[in-house]
Competence protein ([Clostridium] ultunense Esp), 205 residues
Amino acid sequence: MSYFTKKEQILIIIIIIIIFIISGFNFINKNFLSTKNDHNENTDGVEELFMKLEEEAETNEDEQYIMVHVSGQVYNPGIVELKLGSRVIDAINLAGGLKKDADSDKINLARKLSDEEKIHIPKIGEEEISFEDSNLKQGNNEGKININTCTKEELMSLPGIGEVLAGRILEYREQTPFKTIEDIMNVSGIGNKKFESIKELIIVK
């Protein structure tokens, strides 16, 4: 029976160790590549999600809104907010819809709206006033509300003015007529912030 010499035994051990090292390296490298691919797939999914969110944000930014004042024969007169490209009928619906006495034949329900526009819904039998006559009568004030002569309903059409505040304004002007629009801030409940929201919509005559 032959035996390996000591030198041969050492050489065999070294070869076995090298084989184990190579096998271990291949195993680790294979797992690393697999993990890396999984990571890349996850990263691609996250990037795709962010791209979708950015597209949605851009779409929302493209949506523009306008403010329109609706008065007359509607159930909730006042300021309404609509998307750009909306029509008169859309503003009327947001203002509660037409009352039974509204003369819808005198308005174009299909007309597209623009920002800061005022829509007046006349009553059946109400005298129609042309745009030029309206400007002359209002002193080119573009339909602003005269807080010395307006009705309670007209006051309630102003943003932030409810029934209680409208009543206070009427009570105040009975005692002391308004000399300037700033005098409306003397009414309890109307501060600087509320005045800023209505000052472009009111006048004093």
